[in-house]
Amino acid sequence: MLEPVFNSLFNVHNIPHSSTFNAAARSMTRATRKTVSRDFFSPQPRRVREKGKGRATDFQEEHECSSSHPSLCREWSCLTRHSPWCSKRHQFLMINEFPDSSPRKPPLKRISSGLRRYSSRRMSLRLTGQRRHASGIPDLGTSASVDTAPSHPETEEKESDINFLPFRPIPPDPRLLSVSSLTDALSVPTEKADSWNLWKAYSLVAEEDALYLTRVDVFLSLAERMLDSTEQLYRTASKDELRSWGDRIYRLLEYTSSRITPSSPFGYRHRCLFARSCCLRGQLDEARTLLHEAQRIQKRWPSLSILEFYNVYEQLLLSARIHGPPKALLSLIADEWGVMGDVLTHIHIPAALNMTDGLWKSKIVDDHPLHLQRLKKSVYNALLSTDHTVSAWKELGKDVQQRIGDLLIRVFCSHHNRWIPAYELFKLMYERNCLPDRIVHLVLVRYLVKQKLMRLAKHAFSLVIAEPLDKPYLSTALYICGQDGDHERAEDIFQKLEEQDMVTREDRSNILSAYSENGLVRETLDVWNRLFPADDPSELPPAFPKPQPDPYSYIAVLNAFAKRGDIDGLNRWLGRMTNARIHSSTYTFNLTFEAFANNGDIKSIGLGLQQMYKVGVPRDVVTYTTIISALAKKRDPITAEKVFKQALDEGIKPDRVMINALMSAHCEAGSWKGAIKAFDYMAAKKVLPAVDTYNILLECYVAIGAPLKVIMALFAKLETLLIEPDQYTYSLAILAACDNGQMSLARRLFSRMDALADTWANHIRVTVYAMTIIMSGYLRSGHHGRAKRVYDDMLARGINPNSVTFMEIIRSYSFDRRGNGLDLAEEFIKEITAMESRAWTQPPQGATSSMDLIYAPLMWAYSRQKKPEDVERLFKNMVDSGAEPTLGTTTALLDAYRRSGNYAAAEALWPFIFELGLKASEPVSFAKGDDHEAGSRRMQSDILCVPLSIYIDVLSRSEKFDALATVWKSFQNEGLTFNSHNYNHLAVAFTRVGEVERAFEILETVVLPYQQKYASFRRGRDRSPKTPLLFDDEAMLQETIRQPEDNLTGPRSRRNLLTFNVRRVKPIPDFYEYATEEERADMALPLHLLHQISPGWTVWAPHQVTLTIFLLIMIRLREGLLTEALNVHKVTAQHDTRSREDIINERAQAKGLYEALRQQYPNTSSQVMQFESREHARLGVSGFRRKYMEFVSR
Prior knowledge:
By secondary structure, this protein is an all-alpha fold. Helix 25 (about 520-530) runs antiparallel to helix 26 and helix 28 runs antiparallel to helix 29.
């Protein structure tokens, strides 16, 4: 171990006998005793002996030594003290006096890699002969295997000058200053080091020709510091920039090659740094060669740190990812499997966890050293950052495909967004008969389940070779059944585990989850009592301790209450958790929010979120996903976006499920632009969409009334995207076929779905929704017999009809024109309410009440027939049955009063409707420390738009315009918003009172500007949005208005929309026939095109009725009929008894008002004139005169 020290002091090539020379050196460093005077051998005149002080002075005389020029000293012992090994260490000033007597030698070939050698002039050390001073040579210190480089001799000064100056100051040597600046640059902390500053310092040393004055370890530290700084640029810098830095560091290290012994410890460090510089240059083969040489040196010197060795491997991985194709990275891992294989495949399983508990938990213990764990992380990051790894895997040799395939599946399963390459690689391995490891196979299954990809998980699990007594296999099967809610299969598997005494805590949680996922509270509690029986005081203590419930078991029970929406039961079990000393966590709050969401209680969710802030419970992505999903059911995308933005501000990284929830909020509200933007944001962030994402997109197509050909093309395209349609995908396709009247296609789709449901691995079930859609399609097409057979088939399959099923039946009766449809509907409602089974009373997602779904269709049917007494009777029956009045049913009653002319009853009902709307749209605060600032905007602030339009019509017909102004003002004061319908109804109301200018002003200043803004807004589309938020701009809150509740519209309005869209899209027979390849791959492009032409509640435009009234006014003003124009709502003209002069004055006023309207409101006038042209073309001359020219006879 002393060899490096010695090599730094001596030139071993010039001194063959180092031990003898060392002894001589030690003898020379000892202090020399002064035995004779300095003039002992020189003739001197005789001197008188002095006494006293004079005698003492002569004996204590000291010579004056020039430290700058020791050669002028005549004392040989002084010369010894100024030798290179003297105790005063004045070799700094002595070495330059030795002549350069050694010849220049050729460079030594020490490194087999062919690096450029450094040749230095050798220094000959002689103890006799001429001695000269040296100046400007720094202390070389100690360095491993360093050849001491000589300096150039200084010009010798005259002795006469020295006699006058005993000490002469030496000017600063620029070579020494450059070396000092380099040392100062290296003293900067590593985190603040800058590669350019270090390189400038090195370049200055090179320019001053002072490289030979710098120690080798300084060069190595410089190279290491520059490498550390440059390697941080792997993710941001270009390849050329990395290569340029690699070339610089390579040249620096190349200079030091001849000054380092290859097999020394410095050689190990040198090889590692050299390899890292080659990585920057993209020279992977040379880097690996140097790395293997360093590995051999490390084996020779076991005490050397292995961290540098593994650091080179990390840089190799980064370089292979940056400079080479994907195959280069996989080949590197395969070739270096002997070093990295163990750490990449090993998982430590604590014995106390009984294998399975430790194997499947999210936090797996790794017992490797930290540097190996860092290497594993580097491999994972490199593979996750590389594209087309699956394609590169195909190019590998068959001998390494299995191990690399297993590794890639492990890597993909470690990331939440790599399920597509993981499953694709899994399928390829099976196709090539390269079966993955059994544990890796089960890891993939659980990963797919966690990603909520149950069909893919089941398919992958079905390929596992079944071993009945294999614990991991059985536990994985139970885990699937638990997450899927398949309690029947779960019981069979759990029984096998009990028979083999292999039940773990995870298995108990999974069997509870199998029941709780379906909201089966009673059955879940039965399993709990079976797993954790209560202590019986009369029995003896058991020989073995009974299993105790863990937090996951409690969570499974809480989940059952949450699915059912049972808040009381949830509170009781939260109390039991507290008594068991299990504190509330993020998961328990999430389940509580889910229970509130199933009850539609958004306010309680807001209070619960404030409690999380107060007690310091962290929020996660599931928390905000639950809240956004609850807002989606309320059709409130504005508040949903506010919550999404809050999650981003808290550092939450949205996953696929969270973005899907936001996308669903826009879809449910009819905000097609927002749904498209969320879908594009998912692609921009490289979040892989799954079947649930495409289901939401298909739901948008169905809701907007897209042509069936477009929907079926998208349905077929899913197969090319490796997306397996599930039961919801088939249900949406069946719904599209039914809306288009294609019942034969709908039946074929249902038959295919039914056939797939026979295989467990397909994860498809025939649901009540699919059969209800088929039944509803037959009812709407008039095939009541076939609809009855579908209903009977539903009962035969054991599928319980829900309130949506009954609503479709009642709706079909309400539109039956045979005369007794309404009576049959009432009889059917009586049968439903008298049923013993009350399963149908559980409202579906998004509905406020099952009773509301059942009674609303019939109440609206009676309202259309102007039978308010029947509507009142049904409303009373609904309330008597225990149901709460809802906004939908009370609006139906209000409409019945309006149609029948009972305005007084409508005015009496309005305050109740207004209170219901205020309660439903009550502000909820979701922000931390928020004093209702975030909640100042009401949720569903347009929830009263439909009732308001009806009430405006009531007040205008009853000529109570003061009350209308009061109602409008109350809306503004309460923070409620208006939509295009409200402004159109208000404009018509002003025409009833003769305020024509104010009516035109509404269209000119409100409706038409919003129409123009929204039209331009709809046309634009950013394919790579930085945010999914549509309502960042506050103005957009008014430009995009949502659809009303489903029970106020229905399939008929959707079919009318469908007919319109088919007519508008008809000029393009086949969109995909003319689309480019990029457009074909864009699943949202047809929706983007359709929503620009689709008439719906989101469109700001003058209504047909509004334009009709405005056209009547303009025609009458143009003909000089001012009175008729101001009383446009009168049916017949009255006999005119006015004088001719009055008629002439009236015509002049009419002409003036006509010109004023055209000048002050040009956009509105232009719209009216365009509408007139369209009406002429539609009605013809005679038809137009009959409709619009009735009062133009005089």
